[in-house]
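Late entry, written up from scratch paper. The run itself happened at the end of the previous shift, but nothing got recorded in the book at the time, so transcribing now.
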Amino acid sequence: MSTASTTVATGSDSTSSATTASDNTSLDQVDFLTLLTTQLEYQDPTNPVDNTEMVNQMTNYSMLDEDVQQNEIWNNHQSA
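Output as recorded:
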């Protein structure tokens, strides 16, 4: 069984999460928001994330949300 893990580390603190391949092989909205808020929490105020990078991350979140909505509509359409 394989696992995928993500670690966010800054200074002496680190946050880690592991996902087992048999349980879930992709990140969902909650995982994305958790990673984004963790990144913001540990961001160095004297050297913040580039604005372009933040816009890219928020765009990715928006695209993910639209994909989830489209999948739900598609699944509802097929069920009917």
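Residues 1-6 have pLDDT under 50 and may be disordered.
(Scratch paper discarded after transcription.)
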